[in-house]
Amino acid sequence: MSDILTLLGAGLLQSFEPLNLFMIITGCLAGLFIGAMPGLGSVNGVAILLPVTFLVPPTAAIIFLAALYYGAMYGGAISSITLGIPGASTAVATVFDGRPMAQKGKADQALMAAAIASFIGGTVSIILFTLFAPPLAVLALKFGSQEEFALMILAFATFIGLGGDDIPKTIFSILLGLVMAAVGFDIISGKPRLIFFDMVELQRGIGFLVLAIGIYGIGEMLWTLESTKGKVKIEAVKTTWARFKHNLTYVKGYLPTTTLGSILGFFVGTLPAAGATPASLMSYGLAKTFSNDPDSFGKGNVSGVAAPEAANNAASTGSMLPMITLGIPGSPTTAILLGGMIIWGLRPGPLLFAERPDFVWGLIGSMYVANFVTVILNLALIPIFVRVLAMPFTILTPIIFVLCFVGVFSTTDRMFDVWLMLVLGLGGYLLRKLNYPVAPAVLAIVLGPLAERSMRQSLIGSRGDITTFINPVEHPIALGCIIIAIVLIAYPIYLSFRRKNAN
Description:
The chain has one domain. The chain is mainly alpha-helical. It has a two-stranded antiparallel sheet with strand order 1-2. The protein has helices spanning 2-15, 18-36, 41-49, 58-82, 92-103, 107-141, 145-159, 167-181, 208-227, 241-248, 251-269, 276-289, 303-318, 320-326, 332-343, 352-355, 357-380, 382-390, 393-412, 415-433, 439-461, 476-502, and strands at 184-185, 192-193. The radius of gyration is 22 Å and the shape is globular.
């Protein structure tokens, strides 16, 4: 323990060197705005700015990109809360309660909850990273395709609580999302499937961003305009010091949820191919399932903002663990970071701690500093973010529509995806009219490809033996995840029956 503290102290001192501190502040600020822009996100931000890092030493370069990653994770909450558009899959769950809070005049409270929860999630995960890096890396290696599939089943189980009491409609929404996730080429045979009307463009599949921006940008906007007859009234927000102190009093209420989300997020983040998106969705689902007031979720419950934000920030740190210790990227963003490390002449893996302790502990020390810098920047900029909501809705609506178009086209560079976004937006609007929950469909398209790949790998490896997922000798972790998933599915159904019998 004393050795770890000595090395951590050296890493913190290194992160306070003028160049490294400048890179931290610049990275956090850039990441904050990149994360807030629909269509960008941490993956694109790190990829775009990777060439800039060749001008500085490797330690300063990785510190800058890690700070950018942190900032982008924080920034995703900004557009989710103020505009109702998730810029990336990691910020989808934040929309569920963040946007309703903004419409009620509580945008500053939601943004503060997101910032504080992200800070707690980041801090918890960095401490866990510092203390348990080697043993957790060994545990992550034990996750084969069976364990990955069981984890995806566990994530889907948490969705059941997202649709309220109408579980059949929730399941229908999940299945609809899984169908859309299957559009494109079969991952085993390579044959095209579900190519509706023989449209060649659909062979590339339906991108998550196209679906999310269509449903939450276009669909929700159409629903809002119809349900309010065009006279949308968003309560004004006053960002005063007294209100800031008042919002701090709510922290105690969502602290348990935030802590649970932080620990869950870190462990899910350490698993290769999992990442921050399943972590944030699972955290939100668990927060709602075990809440004393589950009906308030989706209507502006502050815990519904804190839980996913804590989880996705913790997962971003967790995903760096397999990259540093094993050379296995835990997320798309860390895959780009891994490429950068190889270009800088570094070999990620178990020997990195021994061969380049200055690099590793400089990075870990910078995480502590970046986490602190980002929460300060985020809290200081809340009045600026809230000003977006001060605009009349007649001006805000066309801005949101333009952001949706630009966000999709700039990411995919295809007009077909823009038209597809509009069609999916109309579909999302019709689902809302028919009182179907849209969130499970969006989440299913994110996790569907991951679940399919791991399931088919497992079945091919076991020659079609479906019991491979519940084999207590060979795959005890997978069995444990599936048992927990069954409990999470059964619990809301049990509560629903209890309420009906009580009435």
